[in-house]
Structure formats: structure tokens, C-alpha cells
Amino acid sequence: MVPPASAFRVPRDLLERYAQSGPRYTSYPTAPEWSADFGPEGGREALRTNATARAGMPLSLYVHIPFCEKLCFYCGCNIQLNKDRARVTAYLDALEREVAWVAAQVDTSRPVVQLHWGGGTPTHLQPDEIERLFGILTGTFRIAPGAEVSLEVHPNVTTRAHVETLAKLGFNRISMGVQDFDPVVQKAVNRLQSFELTRDLVAMCREQGFISVNLDLMYGLPEQTWDGFVKTMEQVLAIAPDRLALFHYAHLPSVFPHQRNLKNLPDSDLKLRLFERAIDTFVDAGMAYIGMDHFARPDNELTHARKDGSLRRNFMGYTTCADSDLLSFGMSAISDLDGAYYQNQRTLAAYMTAMEGLDGPVAKGMHLSADDRLRRDVINTLIGHGRIDKARIEARHSISFDAVFAAEWAELAVFEADGLVSRLPEALEVTPVGQMLIRNICMVFDAYLRQAPERGRIFSKTL
């Protein structure tokens, strides 16, 4: 089968040049630039500064549930395999102490417009444990009317009792991984999950009043074929999700040793053809292509946010809550406090030890300079909207765009010649091909990569 003609086609002579390692820009500066010297005291300072500088502004909350019953070999998340319910209870105890630690530094009356639980597998928690954790959060923070209340689930461990409990508590959005419905691929990655099980869980969620369903797909997995992935996409469209995420499998066995189990990975050309076909398939089905790896129905909040300029990217992916500060809880969780980032201890043992004391869980972080804020704004705008209006950036940061970014603008001439961008007197516009390579374009504006390109950062491939 030959892919149909489309604006979303990367010329193959560009593949070698642009298929390089690069950040996904869920933050800028990216986590490798943060310092361990920041520590718990830096976390307290950042929380207190934010509470004053952003008084009355909305909050988003994220909770990391690291537990899984089974290891998916492609996984790049920070997880813990677990069959011991006592570990879950101890973790919830630690989360309760962390919530109290954060609450002592912030104004808990600020409205929470977004709450998300990720993992791991949040539905590794039993219904009564879900109720306990939800009570810890809502007993401390004020959930705003109409807030986005969501979590990630694994269909293999999510029961009707889970769904009914979540609906009763007020969860209204749900996300679940699919990756690929091909049973050969599923066996290779150690994740068996049938189309019927996934379809029925989505139907159950909608019966219980969930207003948005997201499915995750992944291309570049072992044993993937053109025909198999085309069939998967057809099955996904039959489920009719409100949102879709299409991730490029990041093969980093030096970081995630379990990925060494994966063999027979598709070559670069097949991966790119799968990506191109997926964009065609979902756009032809009426979904909007949001950013670099997301799709949404025309009536979805993400689509509206991209159109009106309010779309933002953070550690939860694309979000419509552009004005909110993110407080995150649990091992490895990352908080985004407008002027600072901090990350909790990455291992379960270190996090649990930290929460037994009074210092707090912060492992590293960073206060942002004026230049960091400027470049973060440029990168976020590019990755969310595909266009930089020079005058708007100048007005927000009191700078001359052409003066500050003279070297970057000149470097973009190559990208323009390759058909990725258009450099206009008043703006930078990203083409459809450029949208597929948006990480490469954003890297031009990354001062840390420019200053020390050979520093030992480990990122996934952009294609």
C-alpha cells in the first residue's frame, strides 16, 4: 500500500539531517539543566514566591501513582512493579504528608481548574484507596466548578467498581494506552489488551458521564507493520475517542534496561510512513492535528485552545489551562511554578525517606531568568500554535525580537529552504512539514543546547 498524497510528508532527503535527539519541551529549560543544589529549601522558596506573585491565580494539581502490576517493555515512565497492598498504603501516607508540606507554603484557596493522576497505573489503587487520595486533595485544595478532573487507566486492571467510584467523585475525563492492537506487537511489548476490552471500558466510562476520552498510540514499536497499524487506526476510530495522542517510541535502553527486550524495531522509513499515514487518517476523519503528537475532535477544548491562542504545554502534555500553576505530588513529580521548576526524588525509596522527615521531597530544581522566560514563551508558542508573532513577544518581554534572536533567525534560513518554516518580516510561521518536525525548530531557540551542544543530555529521537 502506498500512502496518499498529503501536505504532511517529510522529504526523505531530510530524514537523516532532522532525525536527531532532542527534547519534547514539556518544560524549558529542560530537566537536565536543573540543579540538585536547589533542594527542599529551594522548593519552599519557589512555592512561597509563587503564592505571593500569583495570588488568586488558578492551580493545576498532578499526582504520580507509580505502581503497575506488569511491565510494558516500551515503557519510559517512572514506575514500580507491585503486588503488595501495604506499599500502596504507605505511599498514600507519604502523599498525605507531602500535600500538608505544600499546603503550608501556598494559598490553598486558589481555584484548582485541573486535576490529573498519572503513572504508572492510577487504577492500581482500589476504589477505597482512590476515595482516600481524592479526599486528601479535596480536603486541602478547592476544586473549581467545571474543573478538568482526569486520570490514566489500564483497561486490564480497571473494573466497573473503579469507573463508578471515579464518576461519583467527579472525575470527568479519562485516558488509556492502546499503543497498537496488533496481537503480535502486543506480545512483543508484553502488553496484551484486546480491542473489545478497550472498547467496552470506553463505553462504560461514557455511560457513567465521562465527557472526554483520550487514547494513546505509539509508532516505532517492534513487529509493527503498515497493514497492522492501519487496522489499529481503523479500530481506534471505531471507538471514536475525543482526543488521541500519537507518540514516537523512544528507544533508550541505556536509560531503561528493560527496553533491551525489544527486537525487530521498524526502520526509519517505515516509522515515518506510519506517522504520515496516521496524520492523514485522523485528519481525514475530522480530527484537528494539535501540536506535534496530539489530535482532537473539532468540538474539543484542545482544538478551541489552539485556535484562540490559549493552548499550553507542560508535564501533562497539552493543556487548556494556560494561566494555572502546576503543583505535583509523588515520586519524580515535577511542579511548574511560573518562575521556577522543581522535581521530587525520583526513586520510591528516596521519596519515602524524604517524606518521613520535615525537609520535603524536592531533589532538584531551577529558578528561571528573564532569558529563560522569554525563550520558554517562544518555544511554547511555537509548539502549541505553529506561529510566532514578533510584536506579541516583544510586548510581553520588552525586547527587540530581531536583535535578541538574530543568530537564530539566520539559522532558520536552512529550515526555510527545507520547507519547514516561513520567515516573514512580522512573524515566523511553521508549515505542515515543520509541524511534524516542531521539536527541531524549537531546538534553535534553546540557549542551553546552543551554548553546550555536546553536553551529555539524553533525549529521544525527533523522528
Report on this model:
It is a single chain. With 463 residues, this protein is an alpha/beta fold. The protein has 2 domains: 30-367, pyruvate-formate lyase- activating enzyme, CATH 3.80.30; 370-451, Orthogonal Bundle (Arc Repressor Mutant, subunit A), CATH 1.10.10. The chain has 18 helices and 19 strands. The strands form 5 sheets. The chain has a 9-stranded mixed β-sheet with strand order 9-10-8-7-6-5-4-1-13, sandwiched between helices. Strands 14-15-16 form a 3-stranded antiparallel β-sheet. Strand 14 (334-336) and strand 15 (340-344) form a beta hairpin. Helix 3 runs parallel beside helix 4 (127-138) and helix 8 (226-239) packs parallel to helix 9 (268-284).
Compact summary:
This protein is 40% helix and 20% strand.
List the helices and strands and how they pair.
Elements: H1 15-18, H2 39-53, E1 59-65, E2 67-68, E3 80-81, H3 85-103, E4 111-119, H4 127-138, E5 142-153, H5 160-169, E6 173-179, H6 183-189, H7 195-207, E7 212-219, H8 226-239, E8 243-248, H9 268-284, E9 288-290, E10 294-296, H10 301-308, E11 312-314, E12 317-319, E13 325-329, E14 334-336, E15 340-344, H11 348-356, E16 362-367, H12 370-385, E17 387-389, H13 390-397, H14 401-404, H15 406-417, E18 421-423, E19 427-430, H16 432-436, H17 438-443, H18 447-451
Parallel strand pairs: 1-4, 1-13, 2-3, 4-5, 5-6, 6-7, 7-8
Antiparallel strand pairs: 8-10, 9-10, 11-12, 14-15, 15-16, 17-19, 18-19
Helix pairs in contact: 3-4, 3-11, 4-5, 8-9
